[in-house]
């Protein structure tokens, strides 16, 4: 285990807070968190690389949204100081009376300069 | 990308079918899918290694259960032919009138003999 459990929890939570803050307030900046090898599966649709992932996220059928986080679970990944994070929460959209439950999973890989980028990203709405 | 996208989907789906078949019919055999480096976070509780993970799964507060899978999303992981899988579905317990929605995430790592073991495992119930 290359990353201590406590450190992993702190980094996972900090990443998640940063990610959804950008998503809800400055969505185009999310591009900075992906790299050319990154993959996003959004509601079953696969997207690869910074440009296509950024295009997907910036063209979702809602402009304003607010993510409310319920749980953040983090573990060190097998290789190279990476971190796997599973998030559950709710997504409030202007057109919806009730928030929509979602799950999102990130595989974070450390960069040369001590930050992390998103290698794997899965988003799913949870229908009740 | 070391594992082709289509192959990843097939392996991810086959693994998920196998995993929940064991879980619902022969839960003690799930131990065969973990290794000493494996980690499980079950409803926020962290468990490490085959023995502790197996103990956790075999001592959940229900004996009989049935998993119904809704979605399986798979991607190649960054390193070594691994696969990341996000599952959503429902868990039917005898004591519950309605099935409980859940999300589970697996990071699968190939073994020397061509199979996969679970390196990272997260399970969360999704409350409505």
From TrEMBL, chains A, B:
Lipid metabolism is among the record's keywords: no
InterPro entries, per the entry: NTF2, NTF2-like_dom_sf, NTF2_dom, Nuclear_transport_factor_2_euk
> Where the protein is mainly located, per its record?
cytoplasm
UniProt subunit comment: Interacts with RAN1.
Q: Where is the NTF2 domain?
A: 11-125
Keyword Transport (UniProt): yes
Where it sits in the cell: the answer is:
Cytoplasm; Nucleus; Nucleus envelope
- What keywords were assigned to this record? Cytoplasm, Nucleus, Protein transport, Transport
What does the UniProt function comment say about this protein?
A: Has a role in nuclear-cytoplasmic transport of proteins and mRNAs.
A GO biological process of this protein is: mRNA transport
Q: Which GO terms describe its cellular component?
A: cytoplasm; nuclear envelope
PANTHER family assigned to the protein according to its UniProt record, in alphabetical order: NUCLEAR TRANSPORT FACTOR 2
Q: Which organism is it from?
A: Dovyalis caffra
What is the official name of this protein in its record?
Answer: NTF2 domain-containing protein
């Amino acid at each position: 285990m290359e990353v201590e459990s406590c450190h992993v929890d702190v980094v996972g939570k900090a990443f998640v807070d940063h990610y959804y803050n950008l998503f809800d307030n400055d969505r185009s900046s999310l591009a900075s968190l992906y790299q050319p090898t990154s993959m996003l599966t959004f509601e079953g649709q696969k997207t690869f690389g910074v440009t296509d992932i950024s295009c997907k996220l910036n063209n979702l059928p809602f402009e304003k949204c607010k993510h409310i986080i319920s749980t953040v679970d983090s573990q060190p990944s097998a290789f190279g100081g990476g971190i796997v994070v599973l998030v559950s929460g709710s997504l409030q959209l202007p057109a919806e009376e009730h928030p929509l439950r979602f799950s999102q999973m990130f595989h974070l890989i450390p960069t040369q300069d001590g930050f992390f980028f998103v290698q794997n990203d899965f988003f799913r709405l949870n229908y009740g």
